[in-house]
Design a protein that fits this description.
Elements (H helix, E strand, L loop, with lengths): L1 H22 L3 E6 L2 H19 L2 E6 L2 H10 L8 E4 L3 H7 L32 E12 L23 E3 L4 H13 L8 H12 L3 E3 L2 H10 L4 E5 H9 L4 E4 L5 E10 L6 H11 L2 H11 L12 H6 L4 H5 L1 E2 L3 H19 L2
Parallel strand pairs: 1-2, 5-6, 9-10
Antiparallel strand pairs: 3-9, 4-7, 4-8, 4-9
Pfam families: SBP_bac_8
Protein name: ABC transporter substrate-binding protein
Organism: Stappia taiwanensis
């Protein structure tokens, strides 16, 4: 028995050494989103990857839109090996040939992903390794009753205590589109959502532009409910506020955070190793614990407090809704104009 264990151990060590020898001294370049996200990114993926492979990861701090603009500008000689998006830019990037198709067999953790997270690998759209789930953030102490649905926003029991976020904010846009959907609208018709916003404002709701303003309303102005992302309930709790999160029963709009393989780079094998680590259960559990992003790997195990803050498990992720990012981008200016006219009062 000891001999068998020893043989396995030596074999495993040899495999690791071979991988390390392959990668030692190599560098891949990625983007990350700065701040708390980048800190978690380093803890959950970047540092473990460097330790496991001997490679170095050069990080360029760039949000999705800026990173995509750079990728387009550098199409003939891209700087990134792996590029991360949260706004659906991988759909456009894949169509433009800026991203490489991924064979699921090249990712050891791909089989553990929910189907939606790996649906278009062959088209060049990288896997989703985290989800920002949009639902209802609420004050668990002062709220007269716990909200359970998007329709509850229109319940006059919450009048004067609702905080909406401007649709210039990505999370605000997703929350608005979900309210529009619940009221019978679609991406071709946002008038039902605008009518609902008018009703909310008539009931005393307010509109803010940024997440710090949401915190201010909860801390100082007796806000009870805000349609926003699951991770922000955690942010509010860390600030000492009694915040909780619930997915609306009609569904949960989601921002997919993806890791994409850039076309035209020489070290794609090493880049694929980085993507593979990003979609691992260990890395995704780390993101959930540190930032409260929802995992896309079915093997992730979360404790009660963390699980309560995210869309967790097969049933919860079944309610995730992804509004077509290409339609949102195409209609954004038109929608913002209509929104601004609606909230002007």
């Amino acid at each position: 028995m000891k001999k068998v264990i020893s043989t396995i151990a030596v074999s495993g060590l040899a495999t690791l050494m071979a991988s390390t020898a392959f990668a030692a001294g190599e560098t891949i370049t990625i983007n990350s989103f700065g701040g708390a996200y980048e800190k978690a990114h380093r803890a959950c993926v970047i540092t473990p990857f460097e330790e496991a492979t001997g490679a170095k990861v050069q990080v360029v701090t760039a949000y999705s839109a800026d990173a995509f603009a750079q990728l387009r500008a550098q199409a003939e000689a891209p700087q990134f090996d792996v590029i991360h998006f949260s706004g659906g830019q991988e759909i456009v990037g894949a169509k433009e040939g800026l991203l490489s198709p991924i064979d699921p067999a090249s990712l050891s953790n791909a089989a553990d992903l929910y189907d939606f997270a790996k649906a278009n690998l062959a088209a060049g759209e990288g896997p989703a390794y985290s989800i920002a789930a949009i639902g209802l953030v609420y004050n668990s102490v002062t709220v007269p009753k716990e909200p359970a649905s998007w329709s509850d926003l229109l319940d006059k029991a919450y009048a004067d205590h609702i905080v909406l976020t401007d649709i210039s904010n990505g999370y605000g846009m997703l929350g608005f589109l979900m309210l529009n959907k619940v009221k019978g609208g679609s991406l071709d018709n946002i008038q039902p959502g605008l009518d609902a916003v008018t009703e909310l404002l008539d009931n005393g709701a307010i509109v803010v532009s940024t997440s710090p303003e949401i915190q201010q309303e909860f801390a100082q102005n007796d806000a009870w409910v805000a349609p926003y992302a699951s991770d922000y309930a955690y942010t509010l709790r860390k600030a000492g506020l009694p915040a909780a999160f619930v997915q609306g029963k009609e569904g949960t709009p989601a921002s997919f955070i993806t890791a994409n393989l850039v076309a035209g780079r020489d070290n794609q094998e090493l880049a694929l190793k980085f993507i593979d680590m990003s979609i691992s259960a260990k890395a995704q559990a780390c993101f959930a614990e540190q930032l409260r992003y929802s995992p896309t790997n079915a093997k992730v195990v979360l404790d009660g407090e963390v699980a309560a803050d995210v869309a967790y498990g097969e049933e919860a992720v079944a309610g995730l809704i992804r509004f077509d990012p290409t339609v949102i981008e195409a209609k954004r200016s038109e929608w913002v104009d209509a929104w601004n006219r609606t909230i002007a009062r």
